[in-house]
Amino acid sequence: MKTLCLLESVSRADGGIFEAERSLQRELYLRQQVQVEVLGLEDRYTAEDLSLWSPLNPKTVKLSGPEAFGYSPELMKAMDRKVDLLYAATLWKYPSWAALRWAEETKKPMMVAPHGSLDPWAISHSVWKKRVASMLYKNRQLRRATCLRALCQSEADAFRNYGLNNPIAIVPNGIVVPEISAVDPKNERGEKAGKRRLLFLGRIHPKKGLVNLLRAWSRSKKRHEWQFVIAGWDQGGHEAWLMELCKELDLRVESRESRVESHHSDSEVIFYGPAFGEEKKSLLRSADAFILPCFSEGLPMSVLEAWAHGLPVVMTPECNLPEGFDADAAIRVETGVESIAEGLDSLFSMSDADLKEMGARGKELVRQKFTWQTVAEEMKQVYYWMLGGGTRPGSVIASR
Question: What's the CA dihedral at 22, 25, 27, 30 to 10 degrees?
Fold first, then answer.
C-alpha cells in the first residue's frame, strides 16, 4: 500500500497539525509497512524542520502569491498519480483544490482530515475567505472524499452539521509517552522550592481563550504561589495585545527578552516565546499543571503532551477530550472568566499529592488510548477498507 500525504506545511509553521501528522506518517511507515510520500508547501521553517521527518523525506514546492492562499503552480505536477490513496490534511488553501483535482483525475480514494476547521467557532471566523474557498473548491473536495477523518465524536458531529454525508473515520491524534528519567527535573529544585508553574503551550491566538484566562488569573486569590507561563508562537500580534492586558490587570510580567530561568522569579506571567524539540520537553517537565481554555479545537496535541508528562490539566469541553474528565485527569471549565477562575482556584487548592495523582491518571489514559501505535494501526485498517479490502472498521461511521 502506497499513500500520498498532502499538507499545507511540513514544518512547525503548521503548529499541532505538523506534530500530529509527522508522528502519524512516520508510524505508518516505520511500523505499519505503509509506503508514505509527503508533500507540502515551503515556508520559513521548512529547511530547518525537514530532518525531523526522517526516515521520510518530504517534497516541498514554492509558493507564488499571498501566503494566505497557499498557491503553488508546481503542486499539481508534484502529486504522484501512482500511489493507491491520497490523505489530504488540508484546510482552506489551494492544496484543497489540488487534492480535489487529483481525486477527480485519478478516480482513486481520498481521505480528508480537516483537523477542527469545520467546528462552529472555526467556521465563524475569517468568514469571507472561507465562504469563497467553499464555493470554489472546498465543499467539492469534502463531498468527493471517500472518507473523512474526525479526531473525535464532536468533530464527526460537526461534519454532519455542515451537511456532509460521507463515511467518517474517528481516529484521534496520538502521543509518545516519555521514558521516566533517573532524575525527575521537578525535584531538582526541591518539592517546595520556588513557585509552582501553570503552563500554556501552543499557538498564541484568540481561539485559545487566553484573554479570559488572564482576567480569571487576576481574580484568583490563590495565584500568588504559582506562575503562569505562556509558551508558543505569536499569530497576528495577539501576544502584544495580551501583554497590554497584563498591564491593565496590574500583573507582573516577564517577556522572553527579560526572562529569568528560575522558579524564584517574582513574575506572575511569563511570555516564554516558542519552544520546540528538547526545549519544549524541558518546559513540560518543569511545569506543575497545564491549561487550555480554548473556544475551538480538533483534538489538541498539547493536552496529550501534558498528560504524557504526568501533568494535571485544566481545559474546556471544546478540547474534545471528554475521556480526560471521565478519568479525573482534568478539571473542567467553560470559556467564561468566572468558570476559569473557579477552575484555577480548584487547581491551586490541590496538594502536591493530589496534583501528582491527577497527572498520573492522565498519563495512564494516554497509554491506554492515545499512543501512535494504536492510532496508526487503526488508520491502516481504514486505508485498507477504503481500497476495497475487508469489512468496515469499527472506527468508521457509515455514510448517511
Answer: -110
